[in-house]
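hi!! sorry for the late reply, been swamped w classes. u asked for the two structures so here they r. pasted raw, havent cleaned anything up. first the sequence of the first protein and right below it the tokens
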Amino acid sequence: MKNRFRVILSLSLGVAVTLLASLAMASLATSPESAAEAKAPNAEAATSAVGQAAPTEGAPSSEVAVEQSRRQAEEAAIMGKPMPEGGVVWGEYEGTVSKVIDADTLIINDIRFKLLGVNAPDRTRSSKTDECYSDRSAKYLEEQVLGQVVTYSYDRWQGKRDRRGVKHVYLFFDGRLINTELIEKGFAFAQRDRIYGGREHFRALEKQAYLRNIGLWHSCPVECDRSDECWTRDW
């Protein structure tokens, strides 16, 4: 009888211990700390995936941002902002003006240059073939820069030479852009047959000179073709 009681008691104790162990394991499995640990690997994997993903849209790299800013500046200049600005001007060189051929062509350091964006009446060797107002325009340019040390720059859209090898430049003297000054004062037309930064600004200055009826607009018959390219003719 005693032996049977001991067996039953030991079995009961064994069952009780087993039940307590099961309850303890269940409690650990459902505790907040265990749940967090169980989720941690998945969270790390998600974080790793985000880290390897492409950058958020709308946040370009620094190189892309710089390139976008440069293009926007050049486009702004072309749409009519005052020149020179927006990264359109390329390089800065100095030289002495030794000769003025006409109001859009001159010699600097023994090199022939054309003033970009400027279309002036041609002055030839014979006064009989000179275009109207060519002499006045050329003499104005001579008074400003002949014998002077000037600064000139190229246009990024044009480069240093056109396909014929002609060098087109922006001419600076005494803090002034001579190209626009010639157009604004009625000594020349704005050039239309090529792309350059500030072309619309040059044309706006030409329109102002026309409306003010100054310079060649006042003194000469002016003809324009379908492309809006203009020139003077004799009376």
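now the second protein. again sequence first, tokens right under
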Amino acid sequence: MITSIDDVIGNTIDTLKNSSLWHNTLLVFTSDHGGDISYGASNYPLRGSKHTLYEGGVRVPTIVSGGVVDLEAMGNVNEGLFHVSDWFPTIANISGANIGKMERTLSDFQLKSLNILGAVDIYHHFHL
């Protein structure tokens, strides 16, 4: 399974690079939950699994790459919190999308530590 995923992502990256699109690409590889131990997954050393609120159920690794990532940010590890709902405001900001009335709400809290693009701010949004 992992080999297949690795092959597909590698082929996608190669295609983007060969078509001169990599320089304008942000690639995000993540998950929405931890593994399901009833199907043989292990979230060790974290407690819990899919369908739980323990770290093993909600904490997942994420890889961010692409031509738009600042060279100085490459290889950095962030131990901070980032929720799947934070991707929309982050990607909207990076892409320069016009989000109109939502902009004030989405920019209430800036996560400077997740700043992967140098001068561009990465935004974090709390649902209240």
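hope this helps!! also noticed smth abt the second:
Residues 71-128 form one domain.
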